[in-house]
Each structure stands twice: as structure tokens, then as C-alpha cells.
Design goal:
The complex is a heterodimer of chains A (504) and B (162).
Chain A (H helix, E strand, L loop, with lengths): L1 H13 L2 H19 L5 H8 L8 H26 L8 H12 L3 H34 L4 H18 L4 H15 L2 E2 L6 E2 L13 H18 L19 H23 L5 H15 L12 H24 L5 H12 L6 H6 L1 H22 L3 H7 L4 H19 L3 H19 L5 H23 L11 H22 L3 H7 L5
Antiparallel strand pairs in A: 1-2
Helix pairs in contact in A: 1-15, 2-4, 2-15, 3-4, 3-9, 3-13, 4-5, 4-6, 4-12, 4-13, 4-15, 5-6, 5-12, 6-10, 6-12, 6-15, 7-8, 7-19, 7-20, 8-19, 9-17, 9-18, 10-11, 10-12, 11-12, 13-19
Chain B lengths: L12 H22 L14 H22 L11 H37 L5 H22 L8 H7 L2
Helix pairs in contact in B: 1-2, 3-4
Classes of the chains: A mainly alpha (504), B mainly alpha (162).
């Protein structure tokens, strides 16, 4: 019951007025960006990173986690009412949810999504609290080669396993890895790929890259689209769910939670994968198969629960191993590093108060979110009526604000524009963006672990597969790389491409 | 999301351009790596080795991209409207050039105005006015209250430090 008392201590931190305030800002912003199409949680955290330089670390991190959770809640609203998913993990929700809205059942669809997210968020956060200390114990037994193998696994699952082409996913990843080499080498101090430009010595800022790829690339892609998106469906009637709705939803919520949490907590893709699998499970298990595709409430309840549970699950490897498995987690890792904190087993020893405060805040954030998303849903729907020109003008202004705030040099802004154009091109030709960001952040860490492992073994490369754990992890990575390729060759690739997403 | 794009089985020039870009990047990395002092220590792996591995990976991917281009295996993007892209790029480059001359507020107003124009909102002068108001508020909050150091021009000097 060690976790329990630590969690109680965390709650006392989380209930401090300032921390509550940060959590509230986080969930409010998170819901807003989840609702607005075109900006996801990854981008929002990236935009806010530079702004929080001067703020309290605990508060800022709690705010970021609130944004992540809030984004998962808010995304469902856009999916259901607009048929344009607010973030990629809500794509599946759009299938059934939008059908329900077309039939005037938008209210119950929003309700089952919000309550399902709450149930899943609550259970998954508790699972996080009880699982994290166990993983930390395990993590302490891992050496550099095991960490390296874990990172290889994360590289493979982020880039090659899902999506419609392993080649394009890996290309994105290697772009990120190449960009990660820029700057001073952490082990020897050699300046790499700087070409005499002093601004490049510090490496490429994560925020600059993420903001450029997500905000500027996205804005260019949306502006250049010729066909206008779908209209909005007004919510008719009440948001109350009938007894029948409840009866059909609760099992889907629980199943979604227990599908989502493990998927999120393993380096096996993020919330998109979880919500897709949950949808598939609900369609198999339903007693109303004829309703699927025409507004089955289970098809909203399950995936929405799953994507929230997966968001909580993602925090397990992030906090205990320092291993980000989604773009948002990768940027949150940059957030920790900005405050001089390195997530991993030591964080639980050195900054126990902060970690447990963060986990406890998530429980509180969850309660805030269900309040924000059910009674106040009308307010969020109004956000959707902001005209797109103003919306994107504002996004770009904020996007450049972040970069200018860190480093107001023309070089930095030039990189922002360059990567923005790159992001636009990548969207045009179906290259995923998330692997670039993950590669940039995880690349230097993987390199360090690799070189450390080789140092210990005096340059013997066989050391990488010499322990069962690292050998198994590298083996699993190979399976995740090869099996999807075979599936695609056999024409079974559709399943994989549907699961792919970017901005979770 | 690219599921909707039709795949056509004829060579795709875009794939060759992408492959050339990847190969060019790899060449830059290899050239840079050749100039680094090789200092592997006990690991036998120095600062130049991991970039080299990445460069070889990029070369391999460039080769595979050429093959997939020959097979026509690259999503064909839907038709694009060039004008909005040019407006937004103009706004971004305008901000880059004007930032240190005119300050954050004016350059931000131009970025906002031109982006909104790119999304079809007219007239431009009204967009810039809206952008001015927004950039003004942002400057006030972030530079004054949150102590983020945003570049000021004559206008910022006049209003906030006058």
C-alpha cells in the first residue's frame, strides 16, 4: 500500500490553490484545443513550452498533463458534431458519433463520450499510480543496452508498424534522427553538423520543430485545400442518456479502458491504436450489429474510453523510463528537460513530491474535465464558430511567439519556416510527422545509451543482444518492423493505415 | 491521412525529388562526419559514427524511395490552391524580415493579416487591424506580465516604455 500513501501525499500537493489553478488552465486549454480542429495536444504543449520558462516546474508540468487529458476529451466533440476529428485519436469516434448526431442523438453521443472518458481516465490514472512504482523497480535493473533496445522498439512502433507505408514512416524517423545529430555531441563535445553557424551549436529546438511541423505545416495544408469541410450538426434535444444508453455504454467504457491502458503504456503506438482496437472489439461483441455504421452508441463509448486510458498509459513509460511513445509525450519530455528534470526511475526518488503531485493532479483534472465537458458543452460548441481565417491567423501568431520568445534570431525563425514547408510537403505525400519529433528527442538519448553500452563492453557490438531483456526487446522490434510489411504486401495494409495518426 | 489518395502505377517524379533530398542530406552528414576527430574511447564509437549510420540509413531509404517511385507507389496529393500558401509564406517571411525593425506587434499584425487573407478573409487592411489588436494584447501579456523577451520596435518603445 506504498503507492496509496504516496498518492495521498500527492493529493495534498495537488490541492494547493496554485496547483489547482494550473490544472484548471491546463484542462480548459486542453479541451479548447481538442475541440478546435487543426490544433492537437502535441502542438499546444509545444506552443506553451517557451511560455512556461519562468513558471513553477510542478505547476507547468501539471498544466501540460491537463492539456493532454483535456485534448482527449475535447476531440470527441468535434468528431461527433463536425465529422472532422479534433485530434487523431478521435477518428474512430467520428464514425458512429457523427451518425448519431445526424439522427439528432448528438447529445447522448457527447454524454457517453464524456462520461466514458471520465471513467477511463479515473481507472487508468489509478492504474498508473499503482503500476509506476513497480515499473520503477524494474527500470532500476535495466542498463544502457536495455534502454537502447527499448528506444529501438519505440522508434519502430512510432514509425513503421502502423500507417500505410513503413518506408515513409522510417523516412520520417530518419529525418528526425538526422536533425537530432545537429549540435554539440553530449559525450565528447564535438560540434556536429553546425557548419559554423553558432545558433546551431545548441541543436535544433524541439519546440521549433514541433511547432513548425504541426502548426505551420498544418495551416499551409488546410489553406491549400480546395474543397471546404463538412458543416456542423446542431445538438438537438438533451444531453441526457436514456437507461438503454447507460446499459449499452458501461461495458464498452470498461472494455475501452482495459484495451487502452496497456496499449498506451507499452511502446506500441498511442491512443489512435487503442481507440481503433476498442472500436473493432465493440463491433464484434455488440448485440446490435445492424446499428454499426449508423450510430451505435458502443462505437462512441468504447473508443473514447480507450483513447483516454491510453493517454494515461503513455505516462507510465514517460515517467518511469523517460521513454516517450507519442508526439505529445515526446514534447512533454522536452518540458521536463526544460526544468532540468530527467524522467526515469530516479525522478521517483529525487522528485517524489512532484511526480506524485502530478499523478494526483490528473485525478483532479479528470473531475474538472467532466464538469467542463458536460454542463458547459454549449460553450465549447461556440468555439467551433470562430471563422477559420481568424483561427489560423491566431495559431500562426502564437506559433511564432513561442519561437521568438525563446530565441528572437532570424536563424530560428528561418528554421521555423523551413520546417513548416517541410511539414506541408510531408502532409502532401503521406509522410507521418510524429516520427520526426520522436526521432529528434529520442535520438540523442538512444545514441548515448548505445555508446555507453559499447563502452562498458569495450566496443563489442554483441553486448546489445547479450542479456535476455535486450535480446527480446530487439527481437520484438524486428517483428514489429517485418510483420506489418508482410501484411501490407498481402494487401492487408488497410487495417494498419486506419490506425495511423499523427498528433496524439 | 492519406487513405483517400489514388495510387497510380506510373513513375512519380515527386518520389525522385524526395529521394534526391534524402541522399543530399546523407551526403551533408557524411561530409561533416569526415571532418570530425575520431575519438571512440572504450566504445570504439566516436561522435562521427552514429551520424554515419543515420546517413547510410538515409541513403538506403532514398534508394527504396526511388524504387517505390518507379512503381508509382506514392500518394498523389489532391489539387492544391497555390495562392493561400503564398499569402501565408509571405506573412511568415515578412515577419522574419520586419521583426527587428518594426518590432513584434507590427510584424505579428502583418503575419496575422496575411494568413487570414490566405484563408480567404478580405479586406487585407482590416485583417491587419485585427492582427494588430491581437498582437498588442499578446505583447502586453507575454512581454510585460510573463517576462518573455519579445523584440520591440519604435511602437513598443512609444507605448510601453515611453
Amino acid at each position: 500500500m506504498e503507492s496509496f500513501s504516496l498518492l495521498m501525499q500527492g493529493l495534498s500537493t495537488a490541492l494547493e490553490p496554485m496547483i489547482l489553478f494550473y490544472a484548471l488552465i491546463g484542462v480548459t486549454l486542453g479541451t479548447a484545443v481538442g475541440v478546435l480542429p487543426g490544433i492537437g495536444p502535441a502542438l499546444t504543449v509545444a506552443l506553451l513550452l517557451p511560455v512556461t520558462y519562468g513558471l513553477d516546474p510542478a505547476g507547468s508540468l501539471i498544466m501540460f498533463a491537463g492539456i493532454y487529458y483535456g485534448g482527449m476529451y475535447g476531440g470527441s466533440t468535434t468528431s461527433i458534431l463536425l465529422n472532422t476529428p479534433g485530434e487523431s485519436a478521435s477518428i474512430v469516434t467520428a464514425i458512429e458519433g457523427n451518425q448519431m448526431a445526424r439522427q439528432g442523438r448528438g447529445g447522448p453521443a457527447l454524454a457517453t463520450a464524456a462520461i466514458g472518458s471520465f471513467v477511463a481516465g479515473l481507472i487508468a490514472t489509478l492504474l498508473l499510480a499503482f503500476l509506476a512504482p513497480q515499473v520503477v523497480k524494474l527500470a532500476l535493473t535495466l542498463g544502457p543496452r536495455e534502454y537502447f533496445a527499448l528506444m529501438v522498439l519505440a522508434f519502430v512502433t512510432v514509425s513503421a508498424t502502423f500507417g500505410d507505408s513503413a518506408l515513409r514512416g522510417l523516412t520520417s524517423l530518419f529525418l528526425g534522427l538526422a536533425l537530432a545529430c545537429v549540435g554539440i555531441d553530449g559525450l565528447t563535445g564535438a560540434a556536429r553538423l553546425t557548419y559554423g553557424v553558432p545558433q546551431l551549436m545548441d541543436g535544433i529546438e524541439t519546440t521549433t520543430l514541433a511547432v513548425a511541423l504541426f502548426a505551420i505545416g498544418e495551416a499551409l495544408a488546410v489553406a491549400a485545400m480546395l474543397d471546404p469541410p463538412d458543416g456542423m450538426h446542431r445538438v438537438k434535444g438533451s444531453v441526457k442518456m436514456t437507461r438503454e444508453d447507460w446499459r449499452r455504454s458501461w461495458k464498452a467504457w470498461l472494455r475501452g479502458t482495459f484495451i487502452g491502458f496497456p496499449i498506451g503504456s507499452m511502446p506500441a503506438g498511442g491512443a489512435d491504436v487503442a481507440s481503433f482496437l476498442s472500436y473493432a472489439a465493440e463491433r464484434k461483441l455488440t448485440k446490435h450489429p445492424e446499428e454499426f455504421g449508423h450510430g451505435a452508441i458502443e462505437g462512441v463509448a468504447g473508443p473514447e474510453a480507450a483513447n483516454n486510458a491510453a493517454a494515461a498509459g503513455t505516462l507510465v513509460p514517460l515517467l518511469t523510463l523517460g521513454l516517450p511513445t507519442t508526439a505529445t509525450a515526446a514534447i512533454m519530455l522536452a518540458g521536463f528537460q526544460q526544468f532540468g528534470l530527467q524522467p526515469g526511475p530516479l525522478l521517483f526518488v529525487m522528485n517524489a513530491e512532484l511526480v506524485w503531485g502530478l499523478i494526483a493532479s490528473l485525478l483532479i483534472a479528470n473531475v474538472m474535465l467532466v464538469v467542463l465537458n458536460l454542463p458547459l458543452i454549449g460553450l465549447w460548441i461556440k468555439l467551433l464558430s470562430i471563422p477559420r481565417p481568424w483561427l489560423y491567423g491566431g495559431i500562426l501568431l502564437f506559433a511564432t511567439l513561442g519561437t521568438i520568445g525563446v530565441n528572437p534570431s532570424p536563424v530560428e525563425l528561418g528554421m521555423l519556416i523551413l520546417f513548416g514547408v517541410m511539414g506541408y510537403g510531408m502532409r502532401l505525400y503521406g509522410y507521418p510527422v510524429a516520427p520526426v519529433v520522436v526521432g529528434l528527442i529520442l535520438g540523442p538519448m538512444a545514441e548515448q545509451q548505445l555508446r555507453r553500452a559499447l563502452s562498458i563492453a569495450q566496443g563489442d557490438w554483441m553486448t546489445l543482444v547479450s542479456t535476455p531483456v535486450s535480446a527480446v526487446l530487439l527481437g520484438v522490434s524486428a517483428v514489429f518492423l517485418v510483420v506489418p510489411m508482410i501484411m501490407r504486401l498481402r494487401g492487408r495494409g488497410q487495417v494498419l493505415s486506419q490506425v495511423a495518426g499523427d498528433a496524439d | 491521412m492519406s487513405e483517400g489518395f489514388p495510387l497510380e502505377r506510373r513513375p512519380r517524379w515527386a518520389a525522385f525529388v524526395i529521394a534526391a533530398g534524402l541522399a543530399g542530406l546523407a551526403a551533408m552528414i557524411l561530409w561533416d562526419a569526415s571532418g570530425l576527430k575520431q575519438d571512440g574511447g572504450y566504445a570504439g564509437v566516436g561522435p562521427a559514427d552514429v551520424p554515419r549510420i543515420i546517413a547510410y540509413g538515409l541513403l538506403l531509404l532514398a534508394g527504396l524511395t526511388v524504387i517505390s517511385g518507379l512503381k508509382g507507389d506514392l500518394p498523389r496529393p489532391p489539387p492544391q490552391a497555390p495562392a493561400p500558401v503564398l499569402w501565408i509564406m509571405g506573412g511568415l517571411i515578412g515577419q522574419l524580415l520586419l521583426l527587428h525593425v518594426a518590432g513584434f506587434i507590427l510584424s505579428g499584425a502583418i503575419l496575422f493579416g496575411m494568413t487570414a487573407r490566405g484563408f480567404g478573409q478580405k479586406p487585407l487592411w482590416r485583417n491587419i487591424l485585427v492582427g494588430f489588436a491581437l498582437a498588442f494584447v499578446i505583447y502586453g501579456i507575454f512581454d510585460r506580465l510573463l517576462k518573455l523577451n519579445l523584440p520591440g520596435g519604435p511602437l513598443e518603445l512609444l507605448i510601453f516604455r515611453g
